[in-house]
Amino acid sequence: MGRTLARTREALAQFLRSRRERVSPEEAGLPGTGRRRTAGLRREEVAALAGVGVTWYTWLEQGRDIQPSPDALRRIAKVLKLDRVESAHLFALSALEAPAAETGGGVSAGLEMLVRAINPIPAYVRNSRLDILAWNDAIADLFVDYGSLQPHERNTLRLLFLYIPYRTVILDWEQMARGMISAFRASRALAQDKAPFDSLIEELSALSPEFREWWQDTEVKGFDEGRKRLLHPVSGYIDFTYVALTPEGRPDLSLVTYIPRHAAYDPQS
Questions:
Q1: Nearest Cα residue to 131 out of 265, 243, 253
Q2: How far is Cα 152 from Cα 199, in angstroms, rounded to an integer?
Q3: Strand, coil or helix: 110
Q4: DSSP characters for 34-98?
Q5: For residue 225, what are the β-bridge partners?
Q6: Per-residue pLDDT tens for 76-101?
């Protein structure tokens, strides 16, 4: 528990510092202050704009053992110009005892039926740790026969960084990999049990230099809709819109579908 708590507080400190440094005094409505040694706002400026004490905010940014109120966090989020996902991440990192979605639940029979019925639209169900729990034939044809993998191998992050065909099939691999890390980071902050997340972080950090480097970032964002371009060895170039939906009553799960936009298309266009 102590190690997890320390990691969370350090993540909060890094996140606040990184967001403070990206907001200019002009964006915050402060008068021009000339050249600065470092980019962004000073701690005392954030504290003044948010209506909190300088010492208190400094302790918060240092990861000290303090419990900020929701109102104070909302004011800080406004000063730092956090978007919806970033604000939720700030609250998750700060509210250390808040209830959160678990990742150990299975998939209902009805949801498994839905995934199969969607075929030939590629689809799978994943949890907040990005473990793939159910899938149909169409998604397996695109990426890998998930049934041939061990359960611990059916993880989107693990496949992105350790399974070579993912790198060759996904044209925007780095963008997709960084986006998944960002979504994973946000999910970890919300999770009550962080041990399953941390074990995957340790494994990928040991095996993938790219993951180890990119994990040090502080970016967080949702990953519920976007574009994915593939260069499939059989089907050729395919342009998808992916959409992730949350089943009613299961905030820990996402139903992810890949809707073809174009086929047999020049990937350079």
A1: 253
A2: 11
A3: helix
A4: ---SSSS--HHHHHHHHT--HHHHHHHHTT-S----HHHHHHHHHHTT--HHHHHHHHHHH-TT-
A5: 243
A6: 999 999 987 888 888 888 864 444 44
